[in-house]
Design brief:
Distance between the termini: 16 Å
Order of helices and strands: EHEHEHE
Shape: globular
Number of helices: 3
Strand order of the largest sheet: 2-3-1-4
Structural class: alpha+beta
Length: 103
């Protein structure tokens, strides 16, 4: 594959996991698949809204990775901005040097 592909990473509060996965599943033209894992958010910018998170010292989050064409990633981020406004969704887009499947 060419360098036009990017990896879009999304970090969001775990309580919004199903809402995010439903949203991504409704974008079939942009997301042919994605990987989801649980994450523990640390740092000065991380909010700890629940007592359990404050005791643990980290935020319960979900991390989603999507490899897709760069234009689709930017379009998806614009849609996420609208649909998840105020949710502290963190994202970044990184170039992908190579992408494929070994069957």
């Amino acid at each position: 594959m060419t360098s036009e592909y990017v990896c879009l990473s999304l970090i969001l509060a775990r309580k919004l996991r199903e809402e995010l996965l439903d949203f991504l599943s409704e974008q079939p033209g942009q997301t042919s698949g994605f990987t989801v894992s649980d994450a523990a958010g640390h740092g000065s910018g991380v909010q700890l809204p629940t007592a359990a998170e404050r005791v643990k010292g980290h935020a319960d989050q979900v991390h989603v990775l999507i490899v897709l064409p760069g234009a689709d990633a930017r379009r998806l981020v614009d849609q996420l901005r609208h649909s998840f406004a105020g949710c502290n969704l963190v994202y970044w887009i990184a170039p992908v040097a190579e992408f494929g499947t070994i069957a």
